[in-house]
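Q: I'm writing up a methods section and want to include an example of the input and output format. Could you take the sequence below and give the corresponding predicted structure tokens, formatted cleanly so I can copy it straight into the document?
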Amino acid sequence: MNAFTKQAYKLLKNHPVNRARVAKGEPPRTSCAARGGHLPGPRPITERLHLTAAGIAGVALIRGMFRTVGIDPIDVVGAPAGSTRT
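A: Here is the clean output for your methods example:
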């Protein structure tokens, strides 16, 4: 993706459309956004380091991050504000 971004910049910075934009006092468009597709998830930390891991988090975002890297989230009654569990 980095190579694509660099190549896009090289092609766009002197493109006739951008030269016309600059002549009109408008900023050039020198990048493009990549969307869609699928990237493989990270290799679980438990697999990379050959360990078992668990974590306590009262916020759903952190629980999801734990799951993404292979850490088992632990449910705790009365976890801090923002918790999805009570």
